[in-house]
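[Q] Does anyone have a clean C-alpha cell version of this?
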Amino acid sequence: MTFTLWHHPRCSKSRQTLALLESKSIEFELRLYLEDTPTRAELALLHTKLNKPVIEWTRTKDDDFKSSSLSKESTDDELLDLILNHPRLLERPILEGPTEAAIGRPPENVLSIL
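[A] Here you go.
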C-alpha cells in the first residue's frame, strides 16, 4: 500500500502526525503541499477518498477564506476551486491511502485507514 502525508511543517498537528507515523514504522511519501501544490484533479480525488463535504476540510477561519466571497454554504466545487488557488486553506495534515484518506485532527485519526 502507498500512503502520502499531506504535510505542513509549521503546523503542530502535522508534525505530531508525522512523528506518529514514523514511530509506527509506517512507510509513506511526504508531500509538502504548499510547495508541491495540488491540481484540481488531485483535490477532487482527495474529496472522494475523504468522503466528506469539502467545507469539513477547509480552514474557514483563515484570512484567505474570510476574504473570499464563499461561505460555509458554498458548493464543494466552489470550495475546491478556492483551495486550488489558496492551498493553505486545506486542513492539515491529511494521510491519503489508495482508497481512503483521513485528516490528522487528532493525529490518531490517520490510523483508521491503515
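[Q] Thanks! Anything notable?
[A] The first strand starts at residue 4 and ends at 7.
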